[in-house]
Amino acid sequence: MSESESNFDLDSLLDANLDDLEDLPEFKPFAPGAHRCLLSLDKKTIAGHPAVEASFTLIETIELSNSQDVAGKDGDTCNSAFFLDNEFGRGKFKALALSLSEILGTTNQGEIVEQAKNLEVMLLSSVKKDKNDASKVYLNIISIEVI
Q1: Considering the entire predicted model, what is its pTM?
Q2: What DSSP string runs through 17-78?
Q3: Average pLDDT in the chain
Q4: Edge-to-edge strand list for the sheet holding 137-146
Q5: Where are the domains of the chain?
Q6: Is beta strand 137-146 parallel, antiparallel or unpaired with respect to 33-46?
Q7: Cα 131-141-76 angle, rounded to 5 deg
Q8: CA separation (Å) from 120 to 34, 37, 107?
Q9: How far apart are CA 119 and CA 139, in angstroms?
Q10: Is the pLDDT reported for residue 116 higher than 90?
């Protein structure tokens, strides 16, 4: 049993009102705009395709592109996958990796992926709809700057 589990007071938690519990962080693309967040890169195989996944955890939304959109909350997450078995995925990954290479001190792709863990970044993003299912939307990275 971990220390946090042994110090957990179930009775106190259950004595609280539902309004006292935090909401579950959402996993969906951030609304288009500028966001301060943590970035981590990981190697993955997705549906049989080699990929690098960029995972973002929201710290705060700085500005929304559309004032009608709702900003996410601290802890919300989203990701973007770069499929490396085609030129479009490699090109998008290169753009991301170039923005990280100077701060990480390397241009080696593998080293960038290994070192990019919980980097605080400013993410400028939009969303794009799935070409086969318009109800699905994905994060579109416009630019990233390490803070």
Answers
A1: 0.80
A2: -GGGSPPPPPBSPPPSEEEEEEEEEEEEEETTEEEEEEEEEEEEEEEESSTTS----TT-EE
A3: 90
A4: 77-83, 49-64, 33-46, 119-129, 137-146
A5: 25-146
A6: unpaired
A7: 95
A8: 13, 6, 19
A9: 18
A10: yes
